[in-house]
Design goal:
The chain is mostly helical. Helix content is 62%, strand content 6%. Its main location: cytoplasm.
Length: 194
C-alpha cells in the first residue's frame, strides 16, 4: 500500500480499532467501504445523504408530486422567507438551470410567487404562497422524525460535535474547486518532497 493510501486510511480511522466503533465484521460489505476506503469522508457523507434523501424525496414525490429540485426551492424559501434564484443556487449546490426549471414549475403550480425588486430591476425575489407553505409543512414532521432516527445512535454531545464539524465543512466548501483537473498539482498544504 503506498504512502498516500496509508495516510488517507489513517486519517479516516483516527487510530481507532474499526470493530470497536462499528460492531461490523470484516465480512460485512460495508466494512471495507468504511475502513479501507481512501476517500472515506466522501463515502460516509454520500452514504448518509442517500439514507436520508432516498426515502424522503420518494415520499415527497408520492405525496406532493414534486421532484427533489422543486422541493429544494420550497424548503429554501421556507427557511429564508425570500430569496433570488442565485441565492437558492448558492445555498443548495444545485445547478442554476435545474433550479430555474423547478422555479418555473412551482410558479405554474401556484406554490411560489415572484416579485420584481423596484429598486433593482435585475433582482427577482421569490416567496412561498400559502399553497407552497402548506406543502412543506405537510412533510416537515416526517423529515424531522427520519433525521432524529438517524441521530439516535449519538449522544447529545456527539450530535453537537457533529453539527459543528459539518457546519465548518459546509462553510469551507465555498472555497473548494467546482471542477477537477486530470493532472492535479499538489496543494500548498501537501509536502511535495516526500
Amino acid at each position: 500500500m503506498d504512502e498516500l493510501m496509508r495516510t488517507a486510511l489513517y486519517e479516516g480511522r483516527a487510530g481507532r480499532d474499526e470493530s470497536e466503533l462499528t460492531g461490523l465484521s470484516e465480512d460485512d460489505p460495508l466494512f471495507p467501504k468504511l475502513w479501507h476506503n481512501p476517500c472515506w469522508l466522501s463515502f460516509r457523507l454520500n452514504y448518509l445523504a442517500l439514507r436520508f434523501n432516498n426515502p424522503v424525496y420518494s415520499l415527497i414525490q408520492q405525496k406532493l408530486g414534486l421532484l427533489r429540485p422543486e422541493f429544494v426551492v420550497l424548503w429554501s424559501l421556507y427557511l429564508s422567507n425570500e430569496l433570488t434564484l442565485t441565492e437558492v443556487v448558492r445555498s443548495s449546490g444545485f445547478p442554476k438551470n435545474t433550479l430555474s426549471r423547478a422555479i418555473n414549475r412551482l410558479d405554474s403550480l401556484g406554490m411560489i410567487q415572484r416579485e420584481l425588486d423596484m429598486t433593482d430591476q435585475r433582482r427577482i425575489a421569490m416567496k412561498l404562497t400559502d399553497k407552497g407553505r402548506e406543502a412543506v409543512e405537510s412533510v416537515e414532521a416526517i423529515m424531522m422524525k427520519h433525521e432524529r432516527t438517524m441521530l439516535e445512535c449519538l449522544s447529545p454531545a456527539e450530535r453537537l460535535n457533529l453539527s459543528e464539524i459539518l457546519t465548518k465543512l459546509a462553510v469551507a466548501s465555498e472555497g473548494w474547486p467546482q471542477q477537477l483537473s486530470l493532472d492535479p498539482e499538489p496543494s500548498e498544504s501537501e509536502d511535495v518532497t516526500s
